[in-house]
Design brief:
Elements (H helix, E strand, L loop, with lengths): L3 E10 L2 E11 L4 E5 L6 H9 L6 E6 L2 E2 L5 H7 L1 E4 L11 H12 L8 H9 L15 H14 L4 E5 L7 H12 L6 E5 L3 H7 L2 E6 L2 E6 L1 H5 L2 H7 L5
Parallel strand pairs: 3-8, 3-9, 6-7, 7-8
Antiparallel strand pairs: 1-2, 1-4, 4-5, 9-10
The structure holds adenosine-5'-triphosphate (ATP) and magnesium ion.
Length: 237
Amino acid sequence: MDILITEALTRRYGSLVAVDRLDLRIAPGERRAVIGPNGAGKTTLLDMLAGAIRPSGGRVRFDGRDITGYGPARRARLGIGRIHQRPAAWASLTTLDNVAVAGARHRGGVRQSRRPAVELLDRLGLADLAGVEAGRLSHGQLRQLEIAMALAGEPRLLLLDEPAAGLSPVEFERLAEVLRDLPSEVTLLLVEHRLDLVYALADVVTVLRDGQYVVTGTPDEIRVSHAVRQAYSGAVA
Ligand SMILES: Nc1ncnc2c1ncn2[C@@H]1O[C@H](COP(=O)(O)OP(=O)(O)OP(=O)(O)O)[C@@H](O)[C@H]1O
Ligand SMILES: [Mg+2]
């Protein structure tokens, strides 16, 4: 059974259709990338999946359940985690506390030992920054922190909005490794302009343009697809 299904999922802003009747089916453990030029509707799609914005039409099903009317907190509790296009953390909390709080929030506010949070920071290369306030981190470090925070919630579906944006080459390699090493049962939905990361990680790639579905295929199919070249032609990507 598919873990995530969208049915005619639509979001309008006035006369602009940011996402137009999108049907997606994603299998458990799948690594799905969604690509497309600026303004294709990728972030709008993730916002609707995370419950941050309401669709104008259509449905979202997660793990057999219709979650269209669920808010973000309820979706997070079901196991939907996300990383924003602009990284977000509590600026006045330390790096470690941000991860610990994110983990505790997932467990309904129950605080646990700091061990899992310390281990996550280590995996993301942030161990040396555990005691530093998040407000003092660089953009790249903040991005790694947000990934640690999302993983602290032990998501079953992880929505990633341009996780590689603004990373240094070293940070990029670490991110690719962390995502590659996620447990195979975690489903990934990766929105990314860095096609090297997309092709390194994704099993299946879906292309959008101007809110419209263009095509879905394997990385090899997408790489040579005429439709994809057309979708990007004349667009700034
Ligand atoms: N709050 C909003 N109000 C009005 N229009 C919006 C709003 N949010 C998004 N849009 C429009 O919806 C369309 C899709 O935007 P979206 O941010 O989803 O694109 P994207 O694929 O994530 O682009 P990018 O690659 O630049 O991040 C764009 O035309 C955008 O201007
Ligand atoms: Mg976006």
